Amino acid sequence: MNNFEFKNPTKIIFGKDTIKKLESEIPSDSKVLLLYGGGSIKKNGIYDQVKTALAKVDVIEFGGIPANPEYSVLMEALKVIKGEKITYLLAVGGGSVIDGTKFLSAAANYKGETPWDILANNIKTEKGMPFGTVLTLPATGSEMNSGAVITRKETQEKLAMGGPGLFPEFSILDPQVITSIPERQLANGLTDAFTHVLEQYMTYPIGALLQDRFAESILQTLIEVAPKVLKDPTDYKAASNFMWSCTMALNGLIQKGVPTDWAVHAIGHELTALFGIDHARTLAVIAPSHYKFNFEAKKEKLAQYAERVWNITEGSIDDKAYAAIEKTEAFFRELGIDTKLSDYTQDYEGTAEKIAERFTDRGWMGLGEHQSLSPDKVEKIVKMAY
Amino acid sequence: MNNFEFKNPTKIIFGKDTIKKLESEIPSDSKVLLLYGGGSIKKNGIYDQVKTALAKVDVIEFGGIPANPEYSVLMEALKVIKGEKITYLLAVGGGSVIDGTKFLSAAANYKGETPWDILANNIKTEKGMPFGTVLTLPATGSEMNSGAVITRKETQEKLAMGGPGLFPEFSILDPQVITSIPERQLANGLTDAFTHVLEQYMTYPIGALLQDRFAESILQTLIEVAPKVLKDPTDYKAASNFMWSCTMALNGLIQKGVPTDWAVHAIGHELTALFGIDHARTLAVIAPSHYKFNFEAKKEKLAQYAERVWNITEGSIDDKAYAAIEKTEAFFRELGIDTKLSDYTQDYEGTAEKIAERFTDRGWMGLGEHQSLSPDKVEKIVKMAY
User: Fold this and answer.
1) Residue ranges of the Alcohol dehydrogenase iron-type/glycerol dehydrogenase GldA domain (chains A, B) (predicted)?
2) Would the CB atoms of A257 and B208 count as touching at under 8 Å?
3) Is the Cβ pair B216, A217 closer than 8 Å?
4) How far apart are the first and last CA of chain A?
5) B278 φ, ψ to 5°?
């Protein structure tokens, strides 16, 4: 096991009818900016619950944060924060709204001239403006971590940011929100959380027995509840386990003491930036090719995953490892998630070269747990995913 | 799954040669009281590492905190805290030293006249004196939770306390400390952590699929590493998984959203108070009888535990459940832990009645996950454990 440090101060408020607890979490003398996305919260009743809970607090609203939170939109919100002397941010949404709020938390306290530098120069935020979240879409884990990914259409870029000052003070997770999420987004959430675990697990054995089992626990639980969540989002048992699994998949715990990969995300982000493909779907496109391309380096963990998660006990290590990749791809397809780039666009020729060139330009010479995936290898993986 | 709230702000610093990181965790203008136990830290080099790391800080020492931290000893430490105007506490030890330090953290800020009231009246501490820990004995999980148990010889009492203000600010976990721990204490630590998980798991199914799997993950890992830790404490892979498992067993995570039992601890504490039996050993004495006595209420989870943790797949639910109790008792015995009260004392007659009477006197009319274990039932369980 590698040495590690772990601290996660976010307060989780989990369960039925918990949105009303907002009232006691935000200081009553705050001036709050309520941030949300496309407005679905006004149709499903969540907006009303939030407003009722905040009846005694001074609240201004900023809606319209898009999926893949867009820098130019967030810069408009930043103007409101400064102009209205906002002191507390409340994200009501999924990973995009929460990630956008994290950027704003950092940008509100940033002393430099150009907030984009927080992303371009990977500046760690030690202290952001305080914020909380009401999660409306289980998927990214952003509700209990300190990272965010921001998109800039102007330059077709999608970059990560973070820092110890960007944990939500609290996050409210009411699994009942799932009943109003479209099936497509539920499938995305399941795929996203599943791949988050894979990125922290599918590397090489390092003797972190407990972390491995925790990761496998989340994968097993997602596999168990996925068909139930899609079939009947009012199934509270399935919904609550789905929601808690998504949070635990990326709150830092299972990545402590182990090598992590994240190449699937790095490559996937480019597919979103270039084609606008849903984040989760880009992961399902890249992961199988990535594991096949890096088969020798990953086969021991792939075989362990085959045995413990998929109950594949027959055959050699290679047999089991390969079967596990097939199982993973089949799992995504059963969720209704296509796993080839050509399923999403016919304009894919040259994509691999373009992504490799971008990675070269950024100086990203070695992705993955061994820092060995050079741009020419990335190019091959993307081609395998056509 | 039940509704829950979860917040654990303790910073964990885990790994080889991490004690030196103390230097950056305690504010340099602090006046520190360094608390420890019987002095083994002076023989195994931990004391020297701590003193070196704190070379630039004003430090006063208070040693001699006994196993089952004793109120009268802690009251002496409290005098030092007040007399010397201490601002920061540092526990260097196992669960007893850390629990004692939590009491001092609470008592230092307590406005009432008699600090014992914190325990007798179960007063929750919202803000204690800040403290950190260097863990020297994996077992209790006290390094990452906000609870403590304090003993008072004078009245033969052992009571619990806690509150959101009693999380350590940081805890340093260097698995190399295990090399200097006597085998008896390693066996105690393994048993203690194992039983902590059982208390939060061995109840009834409530659809908390992920929490169940996390609990099973810790049990499986402890079973896997236990013989290795006892055979060769320098086995870093075993030591590090043992240490992290003990922390995860009682840092709050696996108890969220599920019913919990804790009757084994409540009864076990009495055996320590009456006979001075090591805490962990009292748990091994009570748990098997408790599970046999409450077999009908617990058999579904017992059978799940049998299948997933002990690979017992044959037989009826009752068969599997019973076999799992036998396996658990055998596991304790393989660690060198006796599982009958008569293994520890020949003076056991009347113990069951005495404990039942104490519970009656305290008004503890219903222990366990169903609040149904009345003193007369406790009496029967203790008799089964003779």
Assistant:
1) 9-175
2) no
3) yes
4) 37
5) -50, 140
Among B176, B199, B226, residue at a domain's last position? B176
The pLDDT tens digits for B90-128 are 999 999 999 999 999 999 999 999 999 999 999 999 999
Distance CA B42, CA B57 (A): 19
> Are B214 and A209 inside 8 Å of each other by CB?
no
* Arithmetic mean of pLDDT over chain B: 96
For residues A138 and A245, what is the distance between their CA atoms, to the nearest angstrom?
Answer: 9
In angstroms, what separates the C-alpha of A160 from chain B's closest C-alpha? Answer: 24
Q: Residue B5 and residue A16: Cβ atoms within 8 Å?
A: no
B:222-261 residues touching chain A, CB 8 A cutoff = 224-225, 236-237, 240-241, 244-245, 248, 256-257
B69 CA: distance to closest CA in chain A (Å): 28
Q: Which residue in A146, A172, A201, A213 has the most chain B C-beta atoms within 10 A of its own C-beta, making it the best mutation to test that interface?
A: A213
**Per DSSP, which regions of A75-183 are E strands?**
88-93, 131-135, 147-152, 157-162, 170-173
**Rounded distance between C-alpha atoms, residue A279 and residue A189, angstroms:** 10
What's the ipTM?
A: 0.97
Q: Above 90 in pLDDT, residue B76?
A: yes
Interface touch B4/A18, C-beta < 8 Å: no
Total domain count, chain A: 2
For the stretch A141-169, pLDDT in tens is: 999 999 999 999 898 888 899 999 999 99
Residue A169 sits in the same domain as residue A31: yes
B305 and B380 belong to one structural domain: yes
